[in-house]
Design goal:
Elements: H1 9-12, H2 25-29, H3 46-70, H4 83-87, E1 94-96, E2 103-105, H5 124-127, E3 139-141, E4 148-150, H6 169-172, E5 181-183, E6 194-196, H7 211-214
The structure holds calcium ion (2 copies).
């Protein structure tokens, strides 16, 4: 009995059917209508064969690179620990867990709550000497050299530095108030240049000029 490796397409055809000989690979690579087994026809040369193989190798390499790039793991919305900070310093930053999928907001790192599956966000190497042990992109240094906040506390509307340097000035470089905020000079310490729009017309003064009660619409 034949082993499976010895079974060919030719042997499966009816016995009275003319048995076509398998075409050599080289004949498939030559220009259509011009060639038969290379070397046996004037239109098919070794040069054709080599050029065809070279083209196939280049195409295969291009496809392999494309597939590798498409399959590269990526976590949407999370800044990988080093590379994207250079490319997009104003992008929202986070800590990428070892699973390469879970993105932990900067202020959740070293907060004594494990947010990565294996607790990478709370490891001693990362949290042993705050803020120096943290990657630089997770930290924002306030104008007071002794103060720092997490990167996601910059431009979040709240006075986290205590002197509003995380919300105002060239150090923070924040965009204007978003649509959920109302721009004014707040009377409360917790805000800097915007107040949440939900505080408008609530019967309580939040802006120095009372614009939150007379101009702002929730
Ligand atoms: Ca945490
Ligand atoms: Ca802030």
């Amino acid at each position: 009995m034949q082993s499976p490796q010895n079974i060919t397409l030719v042997s499966l055809l009816p016995s009275d059917t003319p048995q076509p000989l398998p075409r050599p690979l080289t004949s498939l690579l030559c220009p259509p209508g011009r060639c038969h087994p290379c070397g046996a026809h004037a239109g098919c040369t070794r040069r054709h064969f080599c050029i065809s193989v070279l083209v196939l190798l280049v195409l295969a390499a291009a496809v392999a690179v494309g597939v590798a790039l498409a399959l590269r793991p990526r976590a949407p919305g999370c800044t990988p620990r080093v590379i994207l900070v250079i490319l997009a310093p104003n992008n929202q930053t986070g800590f990428l867990c070892d699973d390469r999928v879970t993105c932990v907001p900067a202020s959740w790192v070293c907060d004594r709550v494990s947010n990565c599956r294996n607790g990478e966000d709370e490891q001693e190497q990362l949290c042993g000497d705050l803020p120096h042990s943290l990657p630089g992109f997770l930290v924002f240094h306030c104008s007071n050299p002794k103060s720092w906040v997490y990167a996601d506390q910059r431009c979040n509307g709240m006075n986290d530095c205590g002197d509003c340097s995380d919300e105002l000035g060239s150090l923070a470089a924040c965009p204007p108030c978003g649509w959920q905020w109302w721009s004014c000079s707040p009377v409360h310490y917790e805000f800097c240049s915007c107040i949440p729009r939900r505080l408008c017309r609530d019967g309580v003064q939040h802006c120095l000029g009372w614009s939150d009660e007379f101009l702002c619409t929730p």
